[in-house]
Amino acid sequence: MSGVGQFTLFRTQRFLPLFVTQFLGAFNDNLLKNSIVVLINFHGMHLLGLAPELMIQLTAALFILPFFLFSATSGQICEKYDKAAVARFVKQLEIAIMLIAATGFLLHNGAILLSTIFLMGIHSTLFGPLKYSVLPQYLQPSELIGGNGLIEMGTFVSIILGQVAGTLLITLDHSNLGVIAMLLLCAVAGLLAARHMLPAPSSAANLPVDWNFVRQTWLIINHARHNRAVWLSLLGISWFWFLGAIYLSKLPTYASTVLGGDASVYTLLMTLFSVGVGAGSMLCEKLSGRKVELGLVPFGSIGLCLFGVDLYFAAPDKATAVLGWIDVLSRPAYWRMIADFTLIGVFGGFYIVPLYALIQTRSEPEFRSRAIAANNILNALLMVLSAAFAALLAGFGVSIPKVLLISALLNIVVASYIYSLLPEFLMRFLVWLFTHTMYRVQHDGLDNIPDEGPVVLVCNHVSFMDALIIAGACRRPVRFVMDHQIFKVPVLNFIFRTGKAIPIASAKEDPQLKARAFERIAEELAAGEVVCIFPEGKITYDGEMNPFKSGIEEIVQRTPVPVVPMALRGLWGSFFSRKDGQAMTRLPRRFWSKIALVAAPPVAAADVSATALQQQVQQLRGDWR
Predict the structure, then answer these.
(1) What's the rounded Cα separation, in Å, for the pair 206 and 106?
(2) Residue closest to 138 by CA, chosen among 211, 185, 84
(3) What is the largest CA-CA distance in the chain?
(4) Which of 228, 386, 513, 565 is least surrounded, with the fewest CB atoms within 10 Å of its CB?
């Protein structure tokens, strides 16, 4: 099954109740936090004689602390029990917390209100592993990027609405009855939505819950480290929240101190950032072709760096009079800053959604909730370090624009380090960049490639881009067997080496290299990998297919596996083809042109022959060369 479109998920019971439940929970988180921040920053609520900026930092720390303390336990609970049942329990807990918050607002008591921040942190700690680990149970693989994008979009839209509602309700209603009613109403509605969530059975029903959070924290972190791609994805997400925590914690004082604005300007900045993240998250499905596309991660981090640095230079001088949000939007001097805040959010969405999807797809199902819990622990640790880092810089008198600039520069260093450890991210970025700049690729029949197990792909060979087009379209990593001369092409060589391509030569040219290539192919297939070969043995010179060589038969005789015939359409005549002479020697004459990659059902190993496969690929290709 290919799954449904991104927005069609809203019509399904397997997604809509989850979305509404998490949306209302995130809304209540932000309504509560922002109401308290506005009371502190603009209405003079004090606690222990702390300055407003330090109280805001304390608010952030209290919300983060439960993630660090209880994530290991929550991961075990979500693994052991039906996740829909856990969601209903969490929503019942939220109602109790909001009753405590109501008392704090009625008494205007800072201690009670800050305690509810901590309690809502516990609520979110329990729900976090649930909402991400249940998605692979509810959604099909082709829906996962779209579903994650909607969850991230919903989270940040709820941030916007929570910010706006918190500011308006506290500003317009000094009795605080409006904010109390809204908090309780959303908590009850969240419970009703959770009651409609479909069952999500336990993935580890016999797992004993270890309440020693220190021991369990160590164990799940250590387990996650054994999966390199998942571990580095966890670190990448945590770094994003290090940056995000700095931005979010500094926005209130940025609005008032740097811009000279009122509470509505703070809400505007939050809205710009949140709309950006939501838009970037939703665009991920379109840009990635409904699959986990790691190439978006470096793309996102580049945008975070560029627009984070530009934000420092875009900050206007502080206004002489107090500004409202309409003043900021209507003055051209602020438009560059507005664009930077929005684009930081957009590229943040590009960065984070594929990482969440990678964790969901590459973690073992019985460890998925605990992998998300490990992510929450790391997030909490990095966010606490973020608060300490920001406080340290503030202690040295570093201005808020410079704090944000330093954070953007640090992102360059950290991102470069992560990509050096996992070059697959950078390789996928280059593949994504090449394929999405030059072509619009249509896919047909790619679900014929098995989701797991060894398989050989055979395809016609039209251009130097063939391997990249196939690599960018397939959900699974592909080991390409290619001519050793193509393997050596600059830039492409980095991509091919990182993708563990297998260089090959003819027996006449280099018999030892050919023998080593067949040994590598057998090893990769024995390991359950996908291997792709171009049986013609060379790129076409006239647009027509060359005869398939017998190597495919030798491969399957040595390691009997199914073979999936594929065909590329529309690449003949492109910059990377040999039409009208040597490839890549003329200026490109077309960009973003329409091409296609089609696949047929697998052929059993016993039925494989070079001649029959050539006929199938010829039929798939048709007249569109």
Answers:
(1) 45
(2) 84
(3) 88
(4) 228
Residue 179 token pair:
């904010």
Number of Cα atoms under 13 Å in the Cβ half of residue 389: 20
Q: What SS3 class is residue 261?
A: strand
**Residue found under tokens 């990769």:** 524
Report the C-alpha gap between 15 and 70 in whole angstroms.
26
Distance CA 292, CA 304 (A): 20
Beta strand 478-483 pairing with 455-459: unpaired
pLDDT digits 0-9 by tens, 289-347: 666 667 788 888 889 999 999 999 988 877 777 888 898 899 888 899 999 999 999 99
Q: Are 296 and 288 in contact (CB under 8 A)?
A: yes
The answer for residues whose C-beta is within 8 angstroms of residue 513's C-beta and 6 or more apart is: 484, 503, 504, 505
Cα(33)–Cα(36) distance, integer angstroms: 5
- Tokens 């900050």 correspond to 315
The answer to whether the CB of 344 falls within 8 A of the CB of 311 is yes
Closest CA to 248 of 59, 6, 427: 59
- 428 touches 456 (CB < 8 A): no
Q: Which two tokens stand for residue 516?
A: 């080593």
Nearest to 35 by CA among 246, 260, 186, 221: 186
Q: How many CB atoms lie within 10 A of CB 274?
A: 25
Tens digits of per-residue pLDDT, 164-192? 888 788 888 778 899 999 999 999 999 99
Residue whose C-alpha is closest to residue 132's, from 70, 193, 73, 79: 79
Separation of alpha carbons 101 and 164, rounded Å: 19
pTM: 0.75
CA dist 150 and 129 (Å) reads 17
Burial zone of 444 (CB within 10 Å; 0-12 exposed, 13-18 middle, 19+ buried): middle
Closest CA to 315 of 264, 267, 271, 253: 253
